Amino acid sequence: MKSSITAGLIAGIVAAIVGYIVGYTLVSMGIYPASPTNSTIWYMVLLVIWGIVFAPIFAKAYNIIPGKGWKKGLNYGLLIWLLSTIYGALWLTLPLTTASFVAAVYYAVFGIFTRIAYGVALGALYKK
């Protein structure tokens, strides 16, 4: 697929589906005490939007990202996860409470699954 926007949209939808499954699983296991219908659905919408936003960056950085095909996308997804988790976790743990720490861990676990799914799907779909 030559269009990075279309590939990003599809990859964002894949990440949202994975995110819903992971989020619902973490909540139903009692790991994170939240309603999966409130927070996860809005995060799914954001995953699709961010999927579209990050796809042109992937297209521009395509030649410098190591790997080929889905492995290139996996590397990109892990890079996005690393950068966003460091930033997000710092803001979430700012109050220095147990609840903020739990939210930061949930954010990191939830994020790695969604970013890997997004990166693999984007790498598999986008062709330069």
Describe the model:
The chain is mostly helical and 128 residues long. The protein has one domain (4-125). The protein has 4 helices and no strands. The chain has helices spanning 4-28, 36-60, 70-92, 98-125. The radius of gyration is 15 Å and the shape is globular. The mean pLDDT is 86.
Features of the shown structure:
single chain; about 130 residues; mainly alpha
Strand content: under 5%
pLDDT < 50 runs, ≥5 residues: none
Query: How many individual helices?
Result: 4
Run of helices and strands: HHHH
Helix fraction, binned, reads over 70%
- Number of β-strand runs: 0
The overall pLDDT, averaged over residues, is 86
Structural classification: mainly alpha
Count of structural domains: 1
Report how far apart the termini are: 8 Å
Biggest β-sheet description: none
Shape: globular
Rg, Å, rounded: 15 Å
Brief summary of the model shown:
With 128 residues, the protein is mostly helical.
Task: Give the topology.
Elements: H1 4-28, H2 36-60, H3 70-92, H4 98-125
Helix pairs in contact: 1-2, 1-4, 3-4
